[in-house]
Every structure is written in C-alpha cells, then in structure tokens.
Amino acid sequence: MDAEKEKNENIIETIDLTKRFGKKNEITAVDSLNLSVKKGEVFGFVGPNGAGKTTTMKMLIGLLEPSSGSGKVAGFDIVREVIKIREATGVLPEPAGFYDNLTARQNLRFYAKLYDIDEKTREKRIVDLLELVGLERAVDQRTGGFSTGMRKRFGLAQALINEPGVLFLDEPTSGIDPLGAQMMRDLIKKLSKEKGVTVFLSSHSMAEVEEICDRIGVIARGRLLAVGTVDELRDKVREKVGIRYALEVQDLPVQRVMEGLRGLKGVRSVEAVNGHISLLTDLGARMEIAKAVKSMGGTISMFEEERMDLQRVFLKLIEAA
Ligand SMILES: Nc1ncnc2c1ncn2[C@@H]1O[C@H](COP(=O)(O)OP(=O)(O)OP(=O)(O)O)[C@@H](O)[C@H]1O
Ligand SMILES: [Mg+2]
User: Fold this and answer.
1) Of 194, 228, 262, which residue sits at a domain end?
2) Helix axes 178-195, 148-159, angle to 10 degrees
3) Taking CA atoms, which of 10, 92, 231, 238 is between 20 and 30 Å from 265?
4) Rg, the chain, Cα only
5) Which of 33, 55, 171, 224 to mutate to test the pocket of ligand 1 (most atoms within 8 A of CB)?
6) Beta carbons within 8 Å of 172's beta carbon, 6+ residues apart
C-alpha cells in the first residue's frame, strides 16, 4: 500500500452499528451508527450522559456484542476477530480498574504477561511508561492508594503496554485537576503526532475536544447527529440556526437602522443589545445588509460575526436534534 493510501485508510469503521438493551430490547443505546476514523487521527466522541459513547467503545473493543450492524478496528472484525483487536488496541475505560493490592509495576507486569511481552522488554517498558505518565516515583506504590488523577495516568500507561496503534480513551481527563488534565492532553497529542497512534476518545469537556481532536462526532440518544472538524460542525449549525452578527452604525439613529433591516431578505431578527444591533441572519446575507445600511446613509463602524465555540455549537446541535 502506498503512503498516501495508507494515510487515508479508515482504521475504525462501523456500519449501522446498533446496540439494544433490556428484556425486550426496548433500550436502544446505539442506533445505526455509521462512523469512520482515519489512521493517526484524534477523534472526539461527545454527547450527553447516556448518549451511547461508552457502549460504542465497548462494541469497538469487543467487550459487547452488537445487536446488529458491523464494525472493523485496525482491519479486524469487532465480532469475529476480538483477540486481534485486543492486540492492536489499548483501552482506558471509565472507571479504570486495577489490581489495587498490587503495585504499579506489578500491575503492568500482569498486563504485559497477557500480551506475552518478553521479560527484558517488559521491565524496560514498564519503567518508560510510568515515566511517560509522570508516575516514576510511584513505581512501587500500590495502585489502591492512587489519587483520581494518578489512576487516570496509570490507566494510560496500562493502555500503552502493548504499544497499540489505536487507543480508546473513555473520558481520559474526567475528575483530574487542571494540571493533570493538561498533561494528559499533551500526552495524547504527542502519541498521535510522534507515534502515529489513532486516538478515539470521549469527553464532556468541549474545550478539551476543541484543543486536541482533529474531528468530532456528536452523539445523542444513540444517534450520530454530526461529524466533522470544529469548523465543519460550526458551519452545519450556522446553516441550521443562522448567523449572529453584532452591528454598529454611525450617522443614523439606531431605530432607523433597525427598521430598515427588518424585513430585509435573509434577516431573521433584529434587536438592540448593549448599544449595538444584534442580527440573526441566513448564510450569505452579509453583503445585502451592508448595502442596505449604506443606502440608508449610514456608516458601518462594526459588523462582526459572533464566533461560536464548540460548547455553543454542541448545545445548538443537541437542541436542534
Ligand atoms: N448493561 C446495560 N444494560 C442496560 N442498559 C444499558 C447498559 N449499558 C448501557 N445502558 C444504557 O445505554 C445507554 C447508553 O449508555 P452509555 O453508557 O453508552 O452512555 P455514555 O454516552 O457513555 O454516557 P456517559 O456520558 O454518562 O458516560 C443509556 O441509556 C444506558 O442506561
Ligand atoms: Mg460513558
């Protein structure tokens, strides 16, 4: 396979992936999910509590069997080739569970043995990984005594023990302090950039997802609402709910401008807010507005689109669903 082709390869792919729970299959946790994640991407999976993020991840790593549909991870079928998937992936579950009466080193030894890693490689890797996640001084501490942040970082070390090409991280920073969370994000970026690891993570922090993810999937009630870069998601919302502008005009009374703009094609609403005019418009109405103000004899001193951060975009997508 040539390099370009390999780069564009989908390393995670699902087709109509569905999971139902309950005696009568009455709970649809994941509903006909079609997703693809490219090799080397950091993909963020976001959605309200109970949206189906963890259930999706569990199906992708072979911990839960789909009710219908299919999926592939690293080229392996998520139902028939679970062992291959275990070898190719690393997982940080939420909550992460370890053998709490064992030390960090002993825990990692245990997981390394599951992967048949030879002793010399294993012992070096354990030390390297604990250093990578900043736990070098806790090598011989029992994990039972670890704080929430230490547990998350240790969980990442554990997920990396088999040098996986794909990492599944379920809420990797929830419950950790800001410094620890930043360290985790920097590590995730580093793994992706320097090692080419594909990362599939879930998070409730939109700022975090905006910072580290190449693309984002938004899920609610089991259904994928949107997928794309932050800009693509923003455009989707702009198309749906319109664009908000702040406008300031000189040489004309505000009321006169507002009257003139009301009823203009593409203008949905006009309000006065904190000394400026707030407009909600369709896409592509900007030029017409500028022209209209000019023809009324006004001079525009400010005409800015209100930039939506991912938090706003997310809320709008969920609201509109
Ligand atoms: N083992 C189970 N039995 C029955 N219902 C389940 C089971 N696991 C998950 N569910 C249901 O499936 C839905 C999706 O849950 P899931 O844990 O995947 O959501 P999530 O997006 O990870 O939420 P959170 O952000 O709270 O972690 C929920 O309605 C949940 O109650
Ligand atoms: Mg979850």
Assistant:
1) 228
2) 10
3) 231
4) 25
5) 55
6) 92, 152, 155, 156, 184, 188, 201, 203
Ligand 1 atom with minimal separation from the 55 CA: 18
- Ligand 1 lined by 158 (C-beta under 6 Å): no
- Based on the structure, what is the number of domains in the chain? 2
Q: In this structure, which residue's CA is closest to atom 1 in ligand 1? A: 21
In a domain, 70, yes or no: yes
Pair (7, 36) in one structural domain: yes
Q: State both tokens at 162.
A: 């088999």
- Confidence (pTM): 0.91
Same domain, 11 and 81: yes
Residues 181 and 260 in one domain: no
Is there an atom of ligand 1 within 6 Å of 217 CB? no
Helix axes 119-132, 148-159, angle to 10 degrees: 140
* Whether 221 and 305 share a structural domain: no
Instruction: With H, G, I as helix, E, B as strand and everything else as coil, classify residue 87.
Output: helix
Cite the DSSP H helix spans in the chain: 3-7, 53-60, 82-88, 104-114, 119-132, 148-159, 178-195, 206-212, 230-241, 254-261, 286-295, 310-320
Cβ of residue 55 lying under 6 Å from some atom of ligand 1: yes
**Widest CA span in the chain:** 81
Residue 24 domain boundaries? 3-228
Please state, in angstroms and rounded to a whole number, the distance separating the CA atoms of residues 267 and 276.
Answer: 16
| β-bridge mates for residue 172, sequence order | none
Structure-token match 């010399």, residue found: 120
Q: Which two tokens stand for residue 61?
A: 């790593």
pLDDT tens for the chain, 321 residues long, are: 555 555 568 999 999 999 999 999 999 999 999 999 999 999 999 999 999 999 999 999 999 999 999 999 999 999 999 999 999 999 999 988 899 999 999 999 999 999 999 999 999 999 999 999 999 999 999 999 999 999 999 999 999 999 999 999 999 999 999 999 999 999 999 999 999 999 999 999 999 999 999 999 999 999 999 999 999 999 999 998 899 999 999 999 999 999 999 989 999 999 999 889 999 999 999 999 999 999 999 999 999 999 899 999 999 999 988
